[in-house]
Amino acid sequence: MKIALVTETFFPEINGVSLTFGILSRKLGKRGHTVTVFRPKRSDLPDNSSHPEFHEIQVPGFPIPGYPLLRLGMPAGRRLSVLWRRDRPDIVHIATEGPLGASAVSAARRLGIPVTSSFHTNFHTYAGLYGWGALRSLTIAWLRYVHNRTCRTLAPTAELCTELSALGFAGLGVLSRGIDTHKFSPGLRSAALRARWGAAGDEPVLIHVGRMAPEKNYPLLFRAYEAMRSVEPRLRFVLVGDGPLRRSMEADHPECIFTGFISASDLAQAYASADLYLHPSLTETFGNVLTEALASGLAVVGFDYAAGRECIRHRGNGLLVPCDDPGGFVATAVGLVRDPALQQRLRKAAAASCIERSWDAVVEQFEKELSTAAGLS
Questions:
Q1: Whether residue 136 has pLDDT greater than 90
Q2: Fewest CB within a 10 Å sphere: which of 40, 112, 288, 350?
Q3: Per-residue model confidence (pLDDT) at position 333
Q4: Residue 294, number of CB atoms within 10 A of its CB
Q5: Class of domain 186-353 (CATH, top level)
């Protein structure tokens, strides 16, 4: 197939959507498909536009208000129409619902090209966290409008499909996320890195990876960390990532280690060199970091939804807490840090539980969805 992928976030940006579609693009290219990625230009990041598996076309963009680390693409319907008339794709897939994605839907429909989409970010939930609560209904209406103009909308879990259906979204299907167990592995554990963190011997290390933004529920994360440290004073806390909250969190918690963004290989080593992972976010559509932590052999505490519900068996390979119980989240985290035997049992089971969650199966499913929508199967 000739596949046009339109996204407002892509590698080297670090988030679940960019990493997911980076993997899908590479693997589809390796499977013999011609993949062209359309994304906003990022002159502030290293140039990563040359790839053997796919082609990349950059278009103008602008920073998201209040969140300059991410970009929205400018509407590009006219340019896309010219390009797609010259070299017509079999299918257009929209990964994000911003101005670029919406204009791509319109361009594809005008040209009679089948178009599919993915739902990856709960923008309507984020609205209240960024002081735009009054816009929540408008945000839902916009998302529904964009997605319902495509013939298929893929979401990462059946749970999310049910929620979207109740909001009036149509043509829904599940496309889960995979995990690279060669990249994320307990075997990457580094005594030297733990020593740099100040963790000697069996001193426990808690790690968290993510965008340092209000939607990630950092107040609950630090509430749990402080309760854990009250019963285990040797606990070290490492936070990987960046975002608008980082400066204030560093000021409030000088005892913690803030690494900022790090390379993919360094991230995998950081996961494997820790012991515990807390996932307090309640706004994820999936949550790649949770599966990365499991694959790296960490004892994980998360809420019972999205990737947590899909990937964790409570007290089998991790610990789950009801979504309406923040106090239970803290108590579960404290109980875990108090129980080294439970930590070891969960860590061993966590890595083993990820072996069958390969990206290859996800790519095959995505390939079938695109082929069906394009009328090629």
A1: no
A2: 112
A3: 98
A4: 32
A5: alpha beta
Q: What mean pLDDT value characterizes the chain?
A: 92
pTM over 0.90: no
pLDDT tens digits along 25-40: 999 999 999 999 999 9
Residue length, the chain?
377
For residue 107, the model assigns a pLDDT of 98
**Domain at 2-178+358-373: CATH architecture:** 3-Layer(aba) Sandwich (3.40)
| 27's tokens | 């693997």
| Long-range contacts formed by 24-32: CB under 8 A, 24+ apart | 24/362, 24/363, 24/366, 25/51, 25/53, 25/54, 26/51, 26/53, 26/54, 27/53, 27/359, 27/360, 27/363, 28/3, 28/53, 28/54, 28/363, 28/366, 28/367, 29/53, 29/54, 31/363, 31/367
Q: 264, exposed or middle or buried, with CB in 10 Å at 0-12, 13-18, 19+?
A: middle
- Per-residue pLDDT at 124: 46
Task: Indicate the range of 61-75, 83-97, 142-156 predicted with least confidence.
Answer: 61-75
